[in-house]
């Protein structure tokens, strides 16, 4: 397919092949819907054989698999990130179906919370301002004039009253003015493809619930998703059945003490005297409290300028200690403090905190005064205000610092609107601190500090990391070539990398928790410092929140309902569940363990948004993460309760929503075995059967960013509400998806929706590119060129299969050729290895084996037998096409169902076929033989290329003349190679093979020149994927001489060259010899004591068992 890059993404110029594949996809999507392929039910409970079976017996007789993804939020259409997570569920469901399991993939629509209603309310205000079709929107010029007028009015007001000339008033810069305003909500809606005339409908929040879920289903269907849509539902009270389920969940958790009432950190408006929820905000919707650790840094001696000011303050209690209070997210790094920073441009207050004085910005102390950190709530008037420049030079004694007599130093990049304005300096692990400290050392006079204050400050290693050693910040700054503390963009990126690397791979190297992982030690150190009074928990908004009354909001401790995550007995259960759970990557399990260590109370209620009312306190709604923890269990019964996602139509059991009492849910989920209800017991048992059959959930799949909340809540709530046998079995966390190796972003245009991807590349090609994108917790990459290449690959495979299956001239009979036996054996080997990779959910590897390697094997077979003149064997080609179809079916089902039904003639769908397995045990010797032949043919081509290369105007071999091919076979390894093969094996086993400093200690000086290249080749073979047991084996699994004789007879050696023709090769000589010999045995002439070629010492030395050398020479 021809492609041209224009702007973001590829432009496909010739779409005929894609369109042919999409036609197949549409056809089979329709067939699957008509066949109800993805509607999966539990075994009928009225079956005599199963009526008395418990869940374990059911699973043994009728294997099942249930997988789900975090249900998408319905404030827009699905994008490529959703598509990536969806694909992981898809591939697992497709594979498990082929393992004979009843594989269930349900998907619901999340509508709970603030975003939808907040957007609807914004649209209401914009309609009031600009009209129903937004026809009265001011032009940009009119908006600029209005803004200028407001600024002038503000300036006049300031002139009319006394203004403190020391107070800085910010004005918009010219650059800011040119940027203009942000987008209105109606403009954002139009970017989604919604017409201006239709946008006003979205001012009704319920319209969102009607509009986006059908689009989600439509997009998933076009992707070929194996979703059982009967089980879908929307959240909130818009579906009364789901609403009753969440009410049961809340009641159950309150009854068991999991939900409590008490103080929680909340965004708060001092001016309004109440919590400022999202709908109360002029700006800052969605912003939540950010928790810091406030570090109390004792002052041992104030700088002279600051001391003079303090001395002038009447009533200042000099007996009290004075603490600079720094806010940090990284208490574990306090061991690396070398100084403390303030901004010379910021004013700081000294606040009377009862038994001591605190130095912070007034903004920070205002937050503290509403968090029970200060003596009096709401009192934050400073005793005195002092400029940061007057504190510079003060002597301090920070907690946990390894050095004494540290100082307050200047940092120009400190801002007054983040943290406390006081910054601990940890140059070992903070790139900002490292660059600032380096700058202070180099330019002490410029900063007005004494050189003695900084010249001896050392960067102290405190954390060891795999990637950046024990000085993360220094290494990163050097690698990223950061030159200045003002290089904000690079430093921001370096900060993210440093935090991630330290947290996930870092190990403490100093202090009480030396040797422990940072993600574990972090919480312990925080707790220790709070316990000993050197630190406290401090919260502030994670960004600016402005109330509608114009108040800059703070964080306050307020009474509210919360889930008591972190309660010890409950946490112990959650840990038990995690221990038995498959997390697919150690990093994921570590992240869960870290979250369980710090996660505590979580507000369960909101006063604004969409959702379910708290049953016992209906002025509050259940917040959006709390009603999204056990919805997978509701999937198991939803299709029997209602027949539409909104719960408007009663389901096949005829159960009305008012009949779904808490007792009924207790019965379904096995909390009670007898209840009073007017629902027939047969119906209750059908509901219970669906739940106990499909539960426990086999795997929940989501983005890694949800580990810290949604997925951990999922574990907690499951262990709280269900018997142990129904606890979840697995969680798979994906990395984020990049698009064409760049972060996805609507603002840059590097963004695609699921619909756009499928329209552009078709479903199967898109699915192949998604499988190829990656499987780890690291960020994956959807490469459009891979999707485009998949179109061509599928189309060519389709054309070839159609052509070859129509032929009647394929060879039949026995497999009488090395390539027949080898191809059959290699197919069996790839099939088994692909099965293993699918089982491990390594879909990138499964795709590589099941498509790319499988096709490469076919290509090699086809070309090899063509060279011998025999042609392909019919049985092998039919086996290849059927196996290829089945191997690829989990990933590209439309294409595979077409081949399976229309080309191979099966009457049923590939969706119901069994995954292939090896037809006979894999023979390793045959695998090695085939790989040996490939390597020999590659060596022949490489030798030809070198021989024909022009050197000083001429080549070693004249391609116009006749040629002799000599193959040199070493029958044994030289003694020195045997010796160092064993050395290399031992080093590889211990993980030291790539450490040359270790390697050189094992090599004798006299052998160094020949051993290092030899071991380098071994390392190259390992890097290419060869197994260690093959690389370090000094014996072949096959008879090398016998194999060479066979291929010599069928002309494979002569056919391997690319420039020199078969007819030009007048002679092939094959010589075998032992190390140190001057003569050889000729396999062609059967003569002994044949002289080895002159001038070929290197080739002779390199020829060892399994790796022959090749010579090409003209025949004179």
Radius of gyration, CA atoms, in whole angstroms: 36 Å
> Structural class of the secondary structure composition?
alpha+beta
CATH level-4 homologous superfamily of the domain at 289-541: Valyl/Leucyl/Isoleucyl-tRNA synthetase, editing domain
Q: Quick check: average pLDDT?
A: 91
How many separate helices? 39
Region (Disordered): 134-176
GO molecular function, one term: ATP binding
EC number: 6.1.1.4
GO biological process, one term: leucyl-tRNA aminoacylation
Protein architecture, described:
This protein is of the alpha+beta class and 1116 residues long. Among the domains are: 265-285 and 544-562, no CATH class; 289-541, Valyl/Leucyl/Isoleucyl-tRNA synthetase, editing domain (Isoleucyl-tRNA Synthetase, domain 2); 761-922, Isoleucyl-tRNA Synthetase, Domain 1; 950-973 and 1040-1116, no CATH class; 977-1033, no CATH class. 43% of the residues lie in helices and 14% in strands. It is built from 39 helices and 33 strands. The strands form 9 sheets. Strands 8, 9, 10, 11, 12, 13, 14, 15, 16 and 19 form a 10-stranded mixed β-sheet that branches. A 5-stranded mixed β-sheet has the order 32-31-30-29-33. Strands 4-3-25-26 form a 4-stranded parallel β-sheet, with helices on one face. Helix 14 crosses helix 16.
């Amino acid at each position: 397919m021809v492609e041209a890059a224009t702007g973001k993404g590829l432009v496909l110029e010739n779409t005929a092949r894609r369109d042919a594949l999409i036609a197949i996809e549409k056809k089979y999507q329709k067939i699957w819907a008509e066949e109800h392929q993805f509607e999966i039910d539990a075994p009928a409970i009225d079956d005599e054989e199963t009526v008395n079976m418990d869940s374990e017996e059911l699973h043994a007789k009728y294997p099942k698999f249930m997988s789900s993804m975090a249900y998408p939020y319905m404030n827009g259409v699905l994008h490529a990130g959703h598509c990536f997570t969806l694909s992981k569920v898809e591939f697992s469901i497709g594979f498990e179906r082929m393992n004979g399991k009843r594989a269930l993939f349900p998907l619901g629509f999340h509508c709970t919370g603030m975003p939808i209603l907040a957007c609807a309310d914004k649209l209401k205000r914009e309609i009031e301002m600009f009209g129903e079709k937004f026809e009265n929107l001011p032009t940009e010029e009119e908006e600029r004039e209005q803004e200028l007028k407001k600024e002038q009015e503000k300036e006049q007001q300031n002139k009319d009253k006394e203004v403190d000339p020391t107070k800085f008033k910010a004005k918009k810069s010219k650059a800011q003015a040119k940027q203009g305003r942000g987008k209105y909500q109606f403009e954002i809606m139009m970017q989604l493809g919604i017409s201006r005339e239709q946008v006003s409908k979205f001012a009704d929040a319920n319209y969102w619930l009607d509009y986006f879920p059908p689009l989600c289903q439509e997009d998933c269907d076009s992707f070929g998703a194996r979703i059982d849509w009967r089980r879908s539902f929307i959240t909130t009270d818009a579906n009364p059945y789901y609403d009753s389920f969440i009410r049961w969940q809340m009641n159950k958790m309150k009854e068991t003490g999991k939900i409590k009432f008490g103080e929680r950190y909340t965004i708060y408006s001092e001016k309004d005297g109440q919590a400022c929820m999202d709908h109360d905000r002029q700006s800052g919707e969605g912003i939540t409290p950010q928790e810091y650790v406030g570090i109390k840094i004792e002052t041992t001696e104030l700088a002279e300028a600051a001391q003079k000011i303090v001395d002038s303050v009447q009533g200042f209690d000099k007996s009290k200690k004075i603490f600079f209070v720094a806010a940090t997210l990284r208490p574990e790094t306090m061991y690396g403090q070398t100084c403390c920073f303030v901004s010379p441009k910021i004013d700081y207050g000294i606040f009377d905190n009862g038994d001591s004085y605190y130095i912070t910005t007034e903004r920070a102390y205002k937050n503290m005064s509403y968090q029970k950190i200060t003596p009096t709530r709401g009192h934050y008037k400073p005793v005195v205000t002092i400029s940061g420049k007057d504190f510079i030079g003060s002597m301090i004694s920070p907690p946990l610092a390894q050095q004494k007599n540290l100082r307050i130093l200047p940092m120009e990049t400190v801002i007054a609107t983040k943290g406390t304005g006081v910054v601990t300096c940890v140059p070992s692990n903070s790139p900002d601190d490292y660059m600032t400290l380096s700058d202070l050392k180099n330019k002490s006079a410029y900063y007005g500090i004494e050189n003695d204050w900084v010249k001896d400050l050392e960067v102290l290693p405190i954390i060891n990391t795999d990637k950046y050693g024990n000085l993360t910040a220094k290494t990163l700054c050097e690698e990223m070539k950061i030159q200045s503390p003002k290089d904000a963009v690079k430093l921001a990126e370096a900060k993210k990398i440093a935090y991630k690397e330290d947290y996930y791979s870092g190990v403490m190297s100093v202090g009480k928790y030396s040797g422990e992982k940072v993600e574990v030690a972090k919480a312990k150190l925080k707790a220790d410092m709070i316990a000993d009074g050197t630190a406290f928990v401090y919260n502030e908004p994670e960004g600016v929140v402005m109330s509608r009354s114009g108040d800059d909001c703070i964080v306050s401790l307020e009474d509210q309902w919360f889930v008591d995550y972190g309660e010890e007995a409950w946490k112990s259960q959650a840990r038990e569940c995690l221990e038995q759970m498959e997390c697919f990557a150690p990093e994921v399990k570590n992240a869960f363990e870290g979250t369980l260590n710090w996660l505590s109370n979580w507000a369960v209620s909101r006063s604004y948004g969409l959702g379910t009312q708290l049953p016992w306190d209906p002025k509050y709604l259940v917040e959006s993460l709390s009603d999204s923890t056990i919805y997978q269990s509701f999937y198991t019964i939803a299709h029997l309760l209602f027949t539409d996602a909104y719960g408007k139509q009663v389901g096949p059991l005829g159960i009305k929503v008012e009949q779904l009492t808490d007792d009924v849910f207790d019965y379904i989920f096995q909390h009670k075995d007898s209840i009073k209800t007017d629902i027939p017991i047969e119906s209750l048992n059908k509901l219970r059967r669906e739940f106990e059959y499909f539960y426990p959930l086999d795997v929940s799949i989501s983005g890694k960013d949800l580990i810290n909340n949604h997925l951990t809540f999922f574990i907690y709530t499951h262990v709280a509400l269900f018997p142990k046998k129904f606890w979840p079995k697995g969680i798979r966390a994906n990395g984020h998806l990049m698009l064409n190796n760049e972060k996805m972003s609507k603002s840059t245009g590097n963004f695609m929706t699921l619909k756009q991807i499928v329209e552009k590349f078709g479903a199967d090609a898109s699915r192949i590119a998604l499988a190829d994108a990656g499987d780890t917790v690291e960020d994956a990459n959807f490469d459009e060129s891979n999707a485009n290449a998949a179109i061509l690959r599928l189309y060519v495979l389709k054309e070839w299969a159609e052509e070859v299956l129509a032929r009647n001239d394929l060879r039949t009979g026995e497999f009488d050729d090395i390539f027949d036996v080898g191809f059959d054996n290699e197919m069996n080997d790839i099939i088994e290895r692909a099965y293993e990779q699918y089982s491990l959910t390594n879909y990138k590897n499964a795709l590589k084996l099941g498509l790319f390697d499988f096709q490469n094997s076919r290509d090699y077979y086809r070309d090899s037998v063509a060279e011998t003149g025999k042609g392909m064997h019919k049985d092998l080609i039919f086996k290849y096409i059927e196996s290829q179809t089945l191997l690829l079916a989990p990933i590209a089902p439309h294409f595979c169902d077409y081949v399976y039904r229309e080309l191979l003639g099966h009457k049923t769908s590939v969706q119901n076929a069994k995954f292939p397995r090896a037809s006979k045990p894999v023979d390793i010797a045959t695998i090695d033989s085939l790989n040996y032949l490939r390597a020999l043919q590659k060596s022949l081509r490489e030798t030809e290329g070198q021989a024909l290369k022009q050197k000083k105007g001429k080549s070693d071999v004249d391609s116009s003349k006749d040629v002799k091919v000599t193959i040199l076979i070493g029958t044994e390894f030289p003694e020195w190679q045997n010796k160092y093969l064993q050395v290399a094996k031992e080093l590889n086993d211990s993980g030291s093979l790539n450490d040359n400093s270790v390697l050189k200690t094992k090599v004798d000086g006299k052998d160094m020149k020949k051993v290092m290249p030899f071991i380098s080749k071994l390392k190259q073979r390992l890097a290419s994927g060869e197994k260690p047991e093959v690389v370090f084996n000094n014996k072949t699994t096959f008879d090398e001489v016998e194999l060479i004789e066979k291929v010599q007879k069928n002309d494979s050696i002569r056919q391997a060259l690319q420039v020199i023709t078969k007819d030009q090769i007048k002679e092939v000589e094959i010589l075998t010899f032992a190390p140190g010999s001057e003569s050889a045995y000729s396999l062609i002439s059967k003569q002994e004591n044949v002289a080895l070629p002159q001038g070929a010492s290197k080739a002779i030395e390199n020829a060892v068992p399994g790796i022959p050398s090749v010579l090409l020479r003209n025949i004179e």
